[in-house]
């Protein structure tokens, strides 16, 4: 049984125990269906069994290639957008390894200013790149790759080829380009959409280059899968989360705010936002996901959360293990903060966490709390799998397909025609 759990914090104010139990019991059928109905979304369920794309052989290849790049690179540029870069960026930014190459991001915007700055920061450094794209029509990574490829060729000539790795679907144009030029090729699974792709070459290769322990991450996901697929369990954490969310939506809480007190979780929350927004936001349905970095945002949107329209519920990420320490020493200046002398920032941040969740639930905001033992590879693996599975269940509960994104395709059509495609 995982040490992660969701708790509902406001003692039946919005959802009574009976209501929850009844909804949970009704939703159990979706759990059954999720692991048995392999036909319904057969082109999108490649992530459901992590072993399909990250068995030992795939992991060995990832780690081996990454070690080679780590030995020689000063900078590694991850070129990709959306589901193709969010998960790797979430973990890399959160765990920030001291050694190894600096990781930069490209192909996730079309800003000339950003691209210029990024290119000039490469001067004089040993540079490797990894472009990741599923359909290779998305404009940002497409043109980002072209610019970086030509920068590499200008700088290294023929040797550039050994500094470029491509992650695309087998048989795609990107695959051909890799073959024609002798780039390393990693597989973007055909049966996994970007936002569900972390447990494949897509998420794991860049993480491994950054020095992340990808085996521990995959183990976390495997253990979470074993737990969630136990259909006898009375307390399935993904179904619990999906059930609370749906009940809150029915009561008018259409916005879910992921709240965290460790800024290192910022990019993880962005991954989570993409997962739920693209999966659920269709047919006029779904919860709108946003995130806040507390305590900073308590001084801005905190006001709205407390007293604005009652349409927001909060999902707090509670990290149990202390990951750093800095003690506030007593000072010769009487600055009015003497009541904090000798306290650790960690302890003060904990107090802020408890106080916020207390204040918010007392003033009637529905609060969920996800407790995570620590911020580590293993628990990122657990969270990735748990949220993906919960999102899949939520799709069934809402009656929408959680694996397509027709709205995004629609805007792309407008953009392509404006640009003369
Ligand atoms: O990997 P790509 O095909 O370039 O896709 C990158 C991203 O772009 C799209 O616009 C989709 O809405 C996302 O779901 C996807 O992750």
Shape: globular
How many DSSP H or I helices? 14
State mean pLDDT (0 to 100 scale).
95
What count of structural domains? 2
Q: Which small-molecule ligands are present, each listed once?
A: 6-O-phosphono-alpha-D-glucopyranose
Could you tell me the CATH topology label of the largest domain: Rossmann fold
Written as H for each helix and E for each strand, in order along the chain, the element string is: EHHEHEHEHEHEHHHEHEHEHEHH
Radius of gyration, Cα only, in angstroms? 23 Å
The separation of the N and C termini measures: 52 Å
CATH class value of the largest domain: Alpha Beta
Strand order of the largest sheet: 1-10-9-7-8
Major sheet attributes: 5 strands, mixed
**Percent in strands:** 5-15%
Runs with pLDDT <50, length 5+?
none
Indicate the percent of residues in helices: 40-55%
CATH superfamily membership of the largest domain: Glucose-6-phosphate isomerase like protein, domain 1
Q: So, CATH architecture of the largest domain?
A: 3-Layer(aba) Sandwich
Number of strands: 10
| Helix and strand composition category | alpha/beta
Key terms:
Phosphoglucose_isomerase_CS, glucose-6-phosphate isomerase activity, 5-stranded parallel sheet, binds 6-O-phosphono-alpha-D-glucopyranose, Rossmann fold, carbohydrate derivative binding, 421 residues, glycolysis
How would you describe this structure to a colleague?
By secondary structure, the protein is an alpha/beta fold. 41% of the residues are buried. The chain contains 14 helices and ten strands. The longest helix has 22 residues. It has two domains: 223 residues, Glucose-6-phosphate isomerase like protein, domain 1 (Rossmann fold, 3-Layer(aba) Sandwich); 163 residues, Glucose-6-phosphate isomerase like protein, domain 1 (Rossmann fold), CATH 3.40.50. The protein starts with a strand and ends with a helix. The strands form two sheets. A five-stranded mixed β-sheet has the order 1-10-9-7-8, with helices on both faces. The site of 6-O-phosphono-alpha-D-glucopyranose has 14 residues, from loops.
């Amino acid at each position: 049984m995982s040490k992660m759990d969701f708790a509902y914090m406001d003692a039946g104010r919005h959802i009574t125990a009976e209501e929850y139990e009844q909804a949970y019991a009704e939703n159990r059928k979706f759990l059954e269906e999720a692991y048995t109905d392999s036909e319904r979304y057969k082109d999108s369920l490649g992530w459901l069994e992590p072993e399909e794309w990250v068995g030992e052989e795939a992991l060995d290849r990832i780690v081996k290639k990454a070690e080679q790049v780590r030995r020689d690179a000063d900078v590694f540029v991850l070129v990709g957008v959306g589901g193709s870069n969010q998960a790797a960026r979430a973990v890399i930014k959160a765990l920030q390894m001291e050694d190894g190459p600096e990781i930069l991001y490209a192909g996730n915007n079309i800003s000339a200013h950003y691209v210029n700055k990024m290119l000039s920061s490469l001067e004089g450094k040993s540079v490797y790149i990894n472009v990741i794209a599923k359909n290779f029509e998305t404009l940002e990574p497409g043109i980002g790759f072209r610019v970086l490829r030509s920068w590499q060729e200008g700088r290294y000539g023929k040797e550039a080829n050994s500094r470029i790795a491509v992650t695309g679907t087998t048989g795609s144009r990107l695959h051909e380009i890799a073959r024609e030029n002798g780039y390393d090729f990693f597989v973007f699974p055909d049966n996994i959409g970007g936002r569900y792709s972390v447990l494949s070459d897509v998420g794991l290769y860049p993480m491994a280059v950054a020095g992340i322990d990808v085996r521990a991450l995959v183990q976390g996901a495997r253990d979470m899968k074993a737990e969630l697929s136990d259909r006898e369990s009375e307390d399935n954490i993904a179904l619990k989360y999906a059930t609370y969310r749906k009940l809150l939506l029915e009561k008018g809480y259409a916005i879910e705010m992921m709240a965290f007190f460790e800024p290192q979780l910022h990019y993880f929350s962005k991954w989570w936002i993409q997962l739920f927004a693209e999966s659920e936001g269709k047919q006029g349905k779904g919860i709108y996901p946003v995130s806040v970095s507390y305590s900073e945002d308590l001084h801005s949107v905190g006001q709205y959360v407390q007293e604005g329209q009652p349409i927001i519920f909060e999902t707090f990420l509670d990290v149990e293990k202390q990951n750093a320490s800095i003690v506030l020493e007593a000072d010769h200046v009487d600055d009015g903060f003497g009541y904090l002398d000798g306290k650790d920032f960690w302890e003060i941040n904990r107090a802020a966490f408890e106080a916020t969740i207390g204040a918010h639930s007392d003033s009637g905001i529905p609060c969920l709390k996800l407790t995570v033992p620590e911020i580590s590879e293993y628990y990122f693996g657990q969270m990735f799998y748990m949220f993906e599975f919960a999102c899949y269940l939520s799709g069934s509960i809402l009656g929408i397909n959680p694996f397509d994104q027709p709205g995004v395709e629609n805007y792309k059509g407008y953009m392509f025609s404006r640009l003369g495609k």
